[in-house]
């Protein structure tokens, strides 16, 4: 049980120091300190996973490495100045995922469909083209919007190929991403209630995941497309 694990101010202080000394020499000198903070944050992530497992089927938790891939980036600083992790749902019938990002002045949780493949994206758009009422009902539910606000994500300028730009639900059909983001202040992150608030946020999004899972595992007739 990891109910009481928290994020420490010293962890954020370390990340701030790393941001001001983002080089291999400094990092190597503070490697053991980094590992201590990494282990503490991992405990927090495991606590989130444990709580999520009480109301959802979670396949795995992945904590991302601190090392940046600088091969194709103009920014050649070698280390990230945040801790982050994702929580994957179990099986092909459960769609959607959870993400947690911790950094001084920029912490957030995110959830939804960040980069749906072209088949999933087309299926979502066809569902919205046929009838978006159930989708709007879910994303506009007061319990969801109170926590997450409005649906976010990149979108095409007019309409995807093959879709009518005058369609009354084109505001949804033109989206390429279907995500929700909730930001947290440092004070909120460092509070004793942060773990519960993260888990509550993820729990509130479940009706959205349930709907999208139903859409992405059926055809337009409502018949399952999963292998039997």
UniProtKB/TrEMBL annotation:
Pfam families: DUF2461
UniProt-listed InterPro entries: CHP02453, UCP028451
NCBIfam families, A to Z: TIGR02453 family protein
Protein name, as recorded: TIGR02453 family protein
Organism of origin: Flagellimonas ochracea
């Amino acid at each position: 049980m990891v109910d009481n694990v928290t994020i420490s101010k010293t962890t954020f202080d370390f990340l701030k120091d790393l941001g001001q000394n983002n080089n291999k020499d400094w990092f190597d000198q503070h490697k053991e300190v980094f590992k201590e903070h990494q282990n503490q944050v991992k405990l927090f992530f495991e606590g989130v996973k444990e709580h999520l497992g009480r109301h959802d089927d979670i396949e795995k938790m992945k904590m991302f490495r601190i090392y940046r891939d600088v091969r194709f980036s103009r920014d050649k600083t070698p280390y990230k100045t945040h801790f982050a992790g994702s929580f994957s749902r179990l099986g092909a019938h459960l769609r959607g995922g959870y993400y947690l990002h911790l950094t001084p002045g920029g912490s957030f949780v995110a959830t939804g469909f960040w980069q749906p493949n072209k088949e999933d994206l087309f299926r979502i758009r066809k569902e919205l083209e046929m009838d978006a009422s159930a989708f709007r009902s879910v994303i506009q539910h007061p319990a969801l919007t109170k926590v997450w606000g409005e649906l976010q994500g990149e979108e095409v300028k007019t309409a995807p190929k093959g879709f009518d730009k005058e369609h009354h639900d084109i505001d949804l059909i033109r989206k390429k991403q279907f995500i929700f983001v909730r930001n947290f202040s440092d004070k909120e992150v460092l509070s004793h209630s942060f773990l519960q608030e993260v888990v509550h946020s993820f729990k509130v999004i479940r009706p959205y995941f349930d709907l999208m899972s139903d859409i992405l595992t059926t055809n337009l007739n409502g018949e399952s497309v999963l292998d039997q």
